[in-house]
Write a structure and sequence with these properties.
The complex is a heterodimer of chains A (276) and B (304). Chain A has 14 helices and no strands. Chain B has two domains: 35 residues, no CATH class; 228 residues, MetI-like (MetI-like fold). Chain B has a two-stranded antiparallel ribbon. Chain B has 304 residues and is mainly α. The chains are: A mainly alpha (276), B mainly alpha (304). At the A-B interface, helix 1, helix 4, helix 5, helix 6 and helix 7 of A face helix 2, helix 5, helix 6, helix 7 and helix 8 of B.
């Protein structure tokens, strides 16, 4: 019986290890290529060990586009989007979880329904609205506003806030605390782990979003990292080493964060799937 | 303190309960205000636009102009066909792989879980643009690492980006790399909610691991599997970045998808009416698949 388990365990690892290495390979190659001179990236056979062209690639990347500006834009947009968006989601989630009010079921159904609506359906009027009617082209708000009502965030917060003890809120009410104060001083502090999870997911979403920024950004100085890198991919005379440095910079902080905070990532991802 | 509360006059109590009655509306107001402007209005206007001829000024209502064209547009049918092929081939293969991975992760036989978790789940933090850039490089016919690897184990080089079928396969491999871990995470959470007693009972009855997998795991996992199926379907219908950057929708139109075609129509040709019709086609298919899921699972897990 024990022997049987040992054999099964070995088979499992023997199957899984090559697959795991295959999955890791693109990330490893990205990091290696970021350190190689162009003629070693585009060579047959390609060099597979790190080189020392990282500074040159960084310089090439900044020749091809204003990458530091793109990083600034991405950080600012993602940070503003996340802090405002999480607050809005938490407020709605709290109302759905802890209050009974007329229209609650209908409004919550709207939130759930919105989860299945492809962005493309909104894209064209949104473009006309933001670019033409509001005149916000190439601003941070042009990127932030359309997703600020983030249904997945509301859903996630609501699911988590169901576990808040109603007695706790009632006690505060008896003590004369206003509803706003209860939310800020009691609900938000005890929801910190859930807020962190949803913030992580929203930040990452905004950091990586491509389609909408691609539509609305025309000025190079307003580009986010994905839009900036996207303009380089597909050019014929371009430094691939530079592109790989850019992708590594866009990616590595989150790989490290993922190693450190896996629990929060997983909680955010499974938000829509877990029922209770 | 509680004696004070009891002593409060009827008026203050009423005021308090009014505040409490209005509070939820105050809390949901910011969300639904933004939702009205940036969701409801665009969704409605997009529908209207699909019946407007935006090829001339001023725009004029013409209910058949865009939809009539859509029916006869070979490029549209090609894009729809490509999207459906990816949907039919990539999604089931990826979900099968994700299910097996989830089962492996759920097994107490697996050691070094940290390593495997990082390998399979790390792709899910990568943005579509960074990984598409990497894959374009990896799948390069002449210089790509993949063809180098294939040749060094005795297989021939594949013209990944320059022939129709390999280009579609490239897109599918890229998507599988990016999304398998994501789905495995969701499926794993589903697996962990299956009562262990079921497996113990099956073992006592003499069921082997394969029987347990097909008789317990798969049926119990069905709602979560369907959930991942719908998520992947909606995601695939929205497929844009990978064909846009890895294969540039080519060769020819071999990897054109509904959304790359929508982008070209809407933002290269600025034909907003026609692009809206394509957008609504995407949404319509998404709705059909979502309803299908609600039918199949009974929609019981959404509300509580």
């Amino acid at each position: 019986m024990r022997r049987d388990r040992l054999i099964r365990s070995i088979v499992l690892h023997a199957l899984l290890t090559p697959l795991a290495l295959l999955f890791l390979a693109p990330i490893v190659w990205m990091i290696v290529a970021a350190t190689l001179p162009n003629n070693e990236i585009l060579a047959a056979p390609p060099t597979l060990t790190p080189g020392n062209a990282l500074p040159q690639n960084w310089a090439d990347l900044n020749d091809d586009l204003n990458f530091i500006r793109a990083v600034t834009n991405s950080v600012a947009i993602s940070a503003i989007f996340t802090s405002v968006g999480v607050l809005i989601a938490a407020m709605s989630g709290y109302a759905f979880a802890k209050f009974r009010f007329a229209g609650r079921a209908l409004l919550f159904t709207v939130v759930i329904g919105a989860l299945t609506i492809p962005f493309e359906v909104r894209a064209i009027p949104q473009y006309l609205l933001v670019a033409r009617d509001l005149g916000l082209s190439n601003t941070w708000w042009a990127i932030i506003l359309p997703w600020l009502a983030y249904p997945l965030g509301v859903f996630f917060m609501r699911q988590n806030m169901l576990s808040i003890q109603t007695e706790l809120l009632e006690a505060a009410r008896i003590d004369g605390a206003s509803e706003g104060r209860i939310f800020v001083q009691i609900v938000l502090p005890i929801m910190r782990p859930a807020l962190a999870a949803v913030a992580l997911v929203m930040f990452l979403f905004q950091w990586n979003d491509y389609f909408w920024p691609l539509l609305i950004l025309t000025d190079k100085d307003a580009y986010t990292i994905p839009v900036a890198l996207g303009t380089l991919v597909g050019l014929t005379r371009v430094s691939w080493g530079g592109i790989m440095v850019g992708t590594a910079i866009a990616t590595i902080p989150f790989l490290l964060l993922f190693l450190w905070l896996q629990r929060f990532f997983i909680a955010g991802i499974t938000a829509g799937a877990v029922k209770d | 303190m509680s004696s004070q509360a009891h002593a409060s006059t009827p008026t203050t109590r009423r005021r308090r309960s009014t505040g409490r009655r209005l509070a939820p509306y105050f809390f949901v107001a910011p969300f639904f205000l933004l939702f009205a402007i940036f969701w409801v209005y665009p969704i409605a206007y997009s529908f209207v636009l699909s019946f407007i001829n935006t090829r001339q000024r001023p725009w004029t209502f013409d209910w058949d102009f865009n939809w009539g064209r859509l029916i006869q547009d070979d490029f549209f049918w090609n894009a729809l066909g490509n999207t459906m092929i990816i949907l039919a081939v990539q999604v089931p293969l990826m979900l099968a792989l994700a299910t097996l991975l989830a089962v492996a992760f759920n097994s107490e036989l697996l050691k070094l879980k940290g390593f495997y978790r990082f390998a399979f789940f790390a792709p899910l933090v990568l943005g579509a643009v960074p990984y598409s850039a990497v894959f374009r490089l990896v799948f390069n016919e002449q210089y790509g690492v993949l063809n180098y690897a294939l040749e060094s184990i005795g297989l021939g080089a594949v013209p990944w980006l320059y022939e129709s079928t390999p280009a579609l396969i490239t897109i599918m491999i890229a998507m599988t790399w990016r999304w398998t871990g994501y789905n495995a995470v969701i499926l794993l959470s589903g697996l962990q909610s299956i009562p262990l007693a079921l497996y113990e009972a099956a073992r006592i009855d003499g069921a082997g691991p394969f029987q347990q997998f097909f008789k317990i795991t798969i049926p119990m996992l069905r709602p979560v599997l369907l959930f991942t199926f719908v998520l992947s379907t909606i995601g695939t219908l929205q497929l844009f970045t990978e064909p846009w950057l890895i294969t540039t929708t080519g060769p020819g139109n071999a990897t054109e998808t509904l959304v790359t075609y929508l982008y070209k129509q809407g933002f290269r040709s600025f034909n907003f009416g026609y692009a809206s019709a394509i957008a609504y086609t995407v949404a319509l298919i998404a709705v059909i698949f979502s309803l299908l899921q609600i039918r199949l699972v009974g929609g019981r897990e959404v509300e509580r």
